[in-house]
Design a protein that fits this description.
The structure holds 2 protein chains of 2 kinds.
Chain A: H1 3-25, H2 27-30, H3 35-40, H4 46-56, H5 62-76, H6 89-124, H7 129-143, H8 146-160, H9 176-210, H10 213-220, H11 225-262, H12 268-277, H13 281-309
Chain B: H1 2-8, H2 13-16, H3 18-28, H4 30-52, H5 84-120, H6 122-136, H7 140-151, H8 155-182, H9 185-192, H10 197-208, H11 210-233, H12 245-252, H13 261-288, H14 290-296
Helix pairs in contact in B: 4-5, 4-13, 5-6, 5-8, 5-11, 5-13, 6-8, 7-8, 8-11, 9-10, 11-12, 11-13, 12-13, 13-14
Classes of the chains: A mainly alpha, B mainly alpha.
Chain lengths: ~325, ~300
């Protein structure tokens, strides 16, 4: 990978992040109504509202407010204070970002545990009943609303069988099983859906590799089928599969937003929805900004891993 | 043999044309046919739901609360004794209306921006596509929630929120397709004949770059139905007492052990419509992009 390409991608990322910050900042001026009135309530007098506006710095020009807001985030990690709890938002973000990333990673592991075996098996027996089953599972999985899947799993595993807790989060410091038991249902909800999408791509990647001449040569040499698959096909299909995993991370983060809300998982998605419902706009700004940054960085890493893993891909 | 030749011989311009050939191939494609059948059935329900519904979807009947599915109430009743079947039928209209209007808005704007960026290139391309990158940097549901925070709750605003989320996808797809045809000979020929850029884009470039846009439209309709359901589920889209599938799931959530039908039927309705649009989208992709078809097969 050329240094020029790397710098170019980093430059684009910075540009995108700048745009993201401008759009995110614009949430408050665009929202009808006054944040100061949200903090004080509808009964507040105009003088009190004006005083809070001054205190929050809302009486200054927008450009000054933007520079001050972004400067606070970049230099001190300061996102301001919540209009509802009056607590620093950065503390909340620091608590919730790891929870979101943990859920996304766990969901990816579940997704891969579903996608890899089913995608490989269906590619090895194209047109068979197994292949048809994987194809049906994949189509249905893509079409199931994530929040519905979450509810069905809660009814089955939490309320009926009572094997797992229905919602909430326990830090790993309070024990491995309590932590894992709370993580399982939300991770499986997203994992089934992302696994069904990835299974299709794994199947295509494997089929593409199986059609190459070197596979025929390996078979003609008399190699055992498991050696042909394990040593030749899987190793080469891995490049495509890693790319799919990277692309899935972005989709997965979007699904995490929804599933967090269903399972009362204390992540950025549930923070954003609660902030919207409570009209706590500075908190919404912070949650949206951090999610977009995580999203943009993952997209960049996916692009770079693609170039690193597949030397035949060249970028100007 | 000669009879067969006579039977299949072209009898008119249409029968000999590419549209006819495409339709014949489409009618033989399992995914396209099953997707179309599902969508047509649901569209009929969406249009004639009011006439088909046996009950008023908002009429309460406290004598029939939580009634299980029966001949009288095929999908049971909810906590207010409202008929779930009638509410699912009415909900189809909301889902389809939101999905079609949202995708029409995002498709129109996205295709316009993508076509302009792809055709002219240069700084215009940079500006448009970087702006699309910025919109694309937000997780889809979070962007929709944020737009709803700005615009306020309600079905109309949900349409706008969903439309904004999908503009960058249409712009990217269209730009890619336009770039692949803009340098072809017939485009250069049209330019040599003195046609303006607008006419070249509309008459020559777009019609030949539409295949991926059509596929994307079908897939986006599936996602738009899911997004509307999610927004209504969170209380941001359709407002009570109006029925929508997402809203019904949200209301049924608290009673799932007591009255599982309240959550099962709206969920199945969402799944079926998304499945229909996904089938159609995947099938059209197979038909319109033979390269991909070979790879997947």
């Amino acid at each position: 990978m050329s240094l020029r390409y790397l710098l170019q991608r980093l430059g684009t990322l910075l540009l995108v992040l700048f745009g993201v910050s401008v759009l995110t900042f614009a949430i408050i001026p665009l929202i009808p109504g006054d944040p100061a009135r949200v903090r004080l309530g509808v009964q507040a007098t105009d003088e009190n509202v004006a005083a809070v506006r001054r205190q929050l710095g809302l009486d200054r020009p927008l450009v000054v407010q933007y520079v001050d807001w972004l400067g606070g985030i970049v230099t001190r990690g300061d996102f301001g204070t919540s209009l509802i709890s009056d607590q620093p938002i950065s503390r909340e973000i620091g608590r919730r970002l790891p929870a979101t990333l943990t859920l996304a990673f766990a969901a990816l592991v579940v997704g891969l545990l579903i996608a890899l075996p089913s995608g490989i098996i269906s590619a090895l027996r194209p047109g068979s009943k197994t292949d048809l089953g994987v194809s049906v599972f994949s189509q249905v999985g893509v079409s199931i609303p994530d929040f519905w899947m979450g509810i069905l799993l809660v009814v089955l595993f939490a309320e009926t069988l009572q094997w797992l807790p229905s919602s909430g989060f326990v830090p790993i410091s309070q024990g491995f099983w309590p932590w894992l038991s709370h993580l399982l249902l939300p991770a499986v909800t997203i994992g089934i859906i992302s696994g069904s999408i990835m299974a299709r791509f794994v199947r295509s990647a494997m089929l593409e590799m199986l059609g190459h001449d070197y596979v025929r040569t390996a078979r003609a040499k008399g190699l055992l089928e498991r050696v042909v698959i394990g040593k030749h096909v899987l190793r080469n299909a891995a490049i495509s599969i890693v790319t799919i995993v990277g692309l899935q991370m972005a989709t997965l983060l979007s699904a995490v937003v929804v599933v967090e809300i269903i399972f009362a998982w204390p992540g950025l998605g549930s923070l954003a929805l609660n902030a919207t419902l409570q009209r706590d706009y500075p908190t919404l700004q912070a949650a949206v900004l951090m999610s977009a940054v995580a999203f943009a960085v993952i997209n960049l890493l996916t692009d770079l891993s693609y170039v690193l893993l597949d030397p035949s891909v060249e970028y100007a | 043999m000669s009879t067969t030749i006579q039977k299949t011989a072209p009898t008119s311009g249409f029968r000999n044309g590419p549209t006819y050939r495409f339709l014949r191939r489409a009618l033989r494609h399992r995914l396209v046919v099953s997707g179309s059948v599902i969508i047509v059935l649901l569209a009929v329900v969406a249009v004639f739901g009011r006439q088909l519904a046996p009950y008023d979807p908002v009429a309460m009947d406290f004598g029939a609360q939580f009634a299980p599915p029966s001949w009288q109430h095929p999908f049971g009743t909810d906590e207010f004794g409202r008929d779930v079947f009638s509410r699912v039928l009415y909900g189809a209209a909301v889902s389809f209306q939101v999905a079609f209007i949202a995708v029409a808005i995002s498709g129109t704007l996205g295709v316009f921006l993508g076509a302009v960026a792809g055709f002219f290139g240069g700084w215009l391309d940079e500006v448009v596509m970087r702006f699309m990158d910025i919109l694309f940097a937000f997780p889809a549901v979070l962007l929709a929630i944020t737009v709803m925070a700005i615009l306020g709750r309600g079905v109309g605003n949900a349409m706008i929120a969903i439309a904004i989320v999908y503009i960058p996808i249409f712009a990217r797809v269209t730009r890619g397709a336009v770039i692949s045809v803009r340098g072809l000979e017939y485009v250069n020929a049209a330019r040599a004949l003195g046609q303006g850029n607008g006419a070249i884009i509309v008459k020559h470039v777009l019609p030949n770059a539409l295949a991926p846009v059509i596929v994307q439209t079908s897939l986006s309709l599936a996602f738009a139905i899911l997004a509307e359901a999610a927004l209504s589920f969170f209380g941001l889209g359709t407002q009570p007492p109006d029925p929508s599938w997402g809203r019904m799931l949200s209301e049924g959530r608290a009673f799932l052990q007591q009255a599982p039908w309240m959550g099962i039927f709206p969920g199945l309705a969402i799944m079926l419509s998304v499945l229909g649009f996904n089938f159609l989208g995947d099938g059209l992709r197979d038909l319109l992009d033979p390269r991909l078809k070979q790879m997947v097969k």
